[in-house]
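hey can u run this one w/ flavin-adenine dinucleotide bound, need the structure tokens asap thx
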Amino acid sequence: ASGSEENDVVVIGGGPGGYVAAIKAAQLGLKTTCIEKRGALGGTCLNVGCIPSKALLHSSHMYHEAMHAFPSHGVKFSKVEVDLPAMMAQKDKAVSNLTRGIEGLFKKNKVNYVKGFGKFVSPTEVIVDTPEGGNTVVKGKNIIIATGSDVKSLPGITIDEKKIVSSTGALALSEIPKKLIVIGAGYIGLEMGSVWARLGSEVTVVEFAPDIVPSMDSEVRKQFQRSLEKQKMKFMLKTKVVGVDTSGGGVKLTLEPAAGGEQSTLEADVVLVSAGRIPYTAGLGLDAIGVQTDKVGRITVNERFATSVPSIFAIGDVIPGPMLAHKAEEDGVACVEFIAGKEGHVDYDMVPGVVYTHPEVASVGKTEDQVKAAGVAYRVGKFPFMANSRAKAIDDAEGVVKILADKETDKILGVHIMAPNAGELIHEAVLALQYGASSEDIARTCHAHPTMSEAVKEAAMATYDKPIHI
Ligand code: FAD
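ok here u go:
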């Protein structure tokens, strides 16, 4: 279908923000079209982000476990080896099955899917350059911009996706690099660094800031960094890259302390640039129709996700807030609910964040530094997985649960978990926080034994009383 008939909702971008908004809009009875340029639905997340990275993290973890953990569990192999093309093929299969799954969901929900690059011609019309070379105009009473984000490059560094790669290239290397340098110690750099370190690369992470993952609770962060160092990842913090030389076989970086000082060089076969992501609005024609953006190029929206142009809305990575897939999805649902005349709500303080390394680190709510800075009187409850029976039974007991609760009311302010499955464990805390629970509410809730979740219960006990098992 061309979409020339007027839609109630047109969504530009088929990532987690856009495709979820489109499905929700159709479910609410609105005539909906979604425009996507990459030829596949799912956006950054599904094609070159969340999903392929988790596929490779799992595969590389299996190899690492086979090498380092299986023998102590009495499982022996005569030979363990990596078949990189097969590993990449399993990742690609997961991605293509999931993107096709979204096309299926579009059909089921009667979302009209238009392939091609969209550009505004008026506040209610988008012209789409189709892959066949023609174009079509898609009209909508309401238009949602869900164009996401793109890799941020660094001055003087050209990403060729071979020797100098972005996360996209790092998800598709054809050989295991002997040496890999990761520029930027955010979660994407650490996840990709972990993948290649497990497969045998010598990984050095260079970071300008004094700490890895700045959003993390500083106490948990220290333990996390130690854990990654045990896995042989090296860190050069407070260090900036001042020069890049690709003339030889590999890449030679010139480094300098962030505060200035003596330069050094570091060589690698591959350099991953993971210094953040920037909102993507190139070619959309925002200026011509008067959609406002902020200093860093994010589209400014009100609490109903409306931009400065009343018929145009924006969601996901292209607006302020955590640049995460689940946040984009929440935005999408709430935005469409507003358009349909209902109420919607997203609380950015309740968006969990997860680093999918091993162990994983997951958090929700405030860090201890933030609570302190806010001048709130608080208590801390902690419980190490070394004292959790399930973690000991499976011999995977590195990590901790840390709960921050208000000293007066015991209301939970923040929860930070480092554990093999922290990304799953965190949701009990997200729910508790969302319902305004106290730490005692969690502590008095029956948790199955033996589970890692018991560590959450015991950390909750520790905020106002004593845990049992330590
Ligand atoms: P996007 O997913 O970026 O989708 C935007 C879509 O719009 C794209 O497909 C693009 O092609 C399309 N588009 C842009 N302009 C136009 C146009 N003019 N016309 C037509 N189409 C257009 N987040 C998590 O929550 N968990 C994770 O584990 C995680 N891992 C990640 C790992 C990596 C390596 C990366 C890079 C990101 C990861 N993220 C993760 C972040 C996550 O991918 C993003 O937050 C999420 O994809 C944002 O969704 P979005 O819908 O706003 O935008």
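The first helix runs from residue 16 to 27. anyway lmk if its weird
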